[in-house]
Write a structure and sequence with these properties.
- There is one protein chain.
- The protein is of the alpha/beta class.
- It folds into two domains: about 200 residues, Rossmann fold; about 170 residues, Rossmann fold (3-Layer(aba) Sandwich), CATH 3.40.50.2000.
- Helix content is about 40%, strand content about 15%.
Length: about 400
């Protein structure tokens, strides 16, 4: 098969990582793979450059069809993508998240495209509602892949919102992650050297975009509630970028909180084993790679019951609090720092649960879903769809 994965841009993002891992995995299984980015970041992106390097080393083509100007790209990118599809002749074009969805909804008005979409989040088109409506009008019985039950519910809600039928061709395929090898894994000494961490402290990690979705402001609220005795025993190292980073940085400086900001780094899963816990105060998620990578590394996740995030955590996980509850989050952090939990047992349980989510399982499931979808499109029983 020849398959194009369409992403927003080469940059920090879980959906982008899924698409890149999928393209590389399909290439290893003998398929022709290509990754097309609709936008180009305004500034050089270390994570994005690493993504391109991995694709190049894995024998996967990649292409950026737009510049850094979102509005201009929305006009140009559909024509460029349609032209590329006519030349490359893919069997399936696979869209990841809203901007690629919009681009493909217009491109398929120009050229015939067999389309797959992965629903990567539990909140869809929270802004730009008109673009969402335009996109969804062009999607009918395409292959729809849900990464979680929450994503499936969000897709159903979106289609109902626009009074559109759901696709009859739906499957659920959880995200998969790769474990860092022993050679790749950071230890405490490496974390001190690379990030300036204090090895004598309880070390927490936050990794993601500084946006409302990720709930870093809730984490700051929780830290501001912690007693000085607890704050003196811990450090939080936050890796990411986003429109709220400057405001968060100023707030941390004003309150003199033990929080240290870092730029995003490629393959951050390598760092997780050196931390005592990864903190995810999210308001909503899809099926976040950070949580899966942390668990796979045997590192406990302090998280919320947010849609999508709750599905990544083991049943009856004790390090989970309600969404947007800074008081509960602060108490949980204080209890963790105070030794209220058997961290060795939590690490063992995390690692066992994390083994469920592998890239190999994910790629195999997508490979099967593509084949079944194409068979239905070519066969006489198209109306039956793929079983949920």
């Amino acid at each position: 098969m020849r398959i194009i994965q369409v992403i927003t841009a080469f940059w920090l993002g879980g959906a982008e990582e899924v698409a890149i891992n999928l393209a590389l995995g399909l290439r290893q299984r003998g398929h022709d793979s290509c990754v097309v980015a609709v936008n180009t970041p305004k500034a050089a992106d270390r994570v994005g450059e690493d993504q391109k390097k991995r694709l190049s080393e894995g024998g996967v083509e990649f292409l950026e069809i737009g510049g850094p100007h979102f509005r201009l790209n929305s006009l140009i990118a559909p024509f460029r993508l349609a032209s590329f599809c006519r030349a490359w002749k893919p069997d399936v074009v696979h869209s990841h998240t809203d901007i690629p969805d919009f681009t493909l909804s217009l491109a398929r008005r120009i050229t015939n495209i067999a389309l797959a979409r992965t629903i990567h989040n539990t909140t869809l088109w929270p802004t730009h509602h008109l673009m969402g409506w335009v996109s969804e009008q062009r999607f009918r019985d395409d292959l729809i892949v849900h990464i979680s039950d929450g994503a499936k519910a969000a897709y159903r809600k979106l289609r109902q919102k626009y009074a559109l039928p759901e696709s009859r061709t739906q499957v659920t395929i959880p995200n998969g992650v790769r474990k860092a090898s022993e050679k790749e894994r950071f230890d405490r000494t490496a974390l001190v050297r690379e990030c300036g961490a204090n090895a004598e402290k309880i070390l927490f990690c936050f990794a993601g975009r500084f946006t409302s979705q990720k709930g870093f402001d809730i984490l700051l609220d929780a830290f501001e509630r912690l007693p000085e005795g607890v704050l003196n025993k811990l450090q939080l190292h936050a890796f990411g970028e986003g429109e709220e980073k400057g405001r968060y940085f100023n707030r941390v400086a004003e309150q003199q909180l033990p929080i240290f900001f870092h730029s995003p780094i490629p393959e951050i899963r390598r760092l997780f084993p050196a931390f005592d816990a990864v903190v995810m105060p999210s308001r909503f998620e899809g099926l976040p790679l950070v949580a899966l990578e942390s668990l796979a590394a045997g590192v406990p996740v302090i998280g919320t019951s947010a849609p999508g995030l709750g599905e990544t955590l083991p049943p009856e996980w004790p390090l989970k609090v309600p969404v947007e509850n800074a008081t509960a989050l602060g108490k949980l952090i204080a209890d963790f720092v105070g030794g209220a939990f058997n961290t060795e047992q939590l690490r063992e349980r995390a690692a066992r649960w994390g083994d469920r989510f592998t890239v190999d399982k994910m790629v195999e499931a997508y490979d099967t879903a593509y084949r079944d979808y194409l068979s239905l499109k070519k066969g006489p029983h198209e109306e039956k769809g793929i079983a949920h």
